[in-house]
Write a structure and sequence with these properties.
Layout lengths: L4 E9 L5 H11 L3 E13 L2 E7 L2 H12 L6 E4 L5 H14 L3 E4 L14 H11 L5 E2 L3 H8 L7 H12 L5 E4 L8 E8 L2 E8 L9 H14 L4 H17 L21
Parallel strand pairs: 1-2, 1-4, 4-5, 5-6
Antiparallel strand pairs: 2-3, 7-8, 8-9
Helix pairs in contact: 1-7, 2-3, 3-4, 5-6, 7-8
Amino acid sequence: MTTPIALTIAGSDSSGGAGIQADLKTFAALGVYGASVITALTAQNTRGVSGIHAVPAGFVTAQIDAVFSDLHVDTVKIGMAAEFATIDAIAAGLTRWSPKHVVLDPVMVATSGDRLLATEAVDALRTKLMPRASLVTPNLPEAAALLDEAVALSESAIESQGKRLLALGCRAVLIKGGHGQDAESIDYLVSSGGTIALAAPRVATKNTHGTGCSLSSAIAAGLAKGADMESAVRNAKTWISAAIAAADRFSVGHGHGPIHHFHKFY
């Protein structure tokens, strides 16, 4: 029996709700063994980010090589990359080890509004990581930032941005509609085969810290277990909706609290 393994390459959230911590919780909740490569340390809580300390690119490389040289990694999820040199190191590692699936969550801004990616690193993300991605998972503002365009406000505009992101070399794009205001939160999965709209009821809660990290990790977990892309995305969407719906069972912090990764268990 083979053990499905997913690797998260991302930043650490000291409050445990997002980043590496959210990714590992997601993998565990969905029955996948999680490994991690830390790209940055953040001093962070539910109210915001008060400090970022980037891990030297050479040590990011050392972590990647240590994991891949020993573990059979089925899927890589990439979150906060922080700096140009970090993106370079990740891209080189992906070229060296050629994982089957790469899910890229282009983390640029935290739930609190704090910027997590240097402006000069956005172009490197676009040119070095997107062409290696099986799936890119931007929210509406991130999709716009990747294309240097205004935020899409209609379904046709979102689909159009998704197609232009595809043209940057990734195999599929999931544009997340969580920043919208409608009664439903609609995500759009865009690939060469067309566009699929995935709707879920919008949950009224302020406890959404780590939602984007956890959704991309849930998709990565599904791919690691052998699901096709559409099934992995649909199952992850169902799981994240339940985790958000259960978030108010927690009383954690005074700002945007975390979702409930282990809602199935307690």
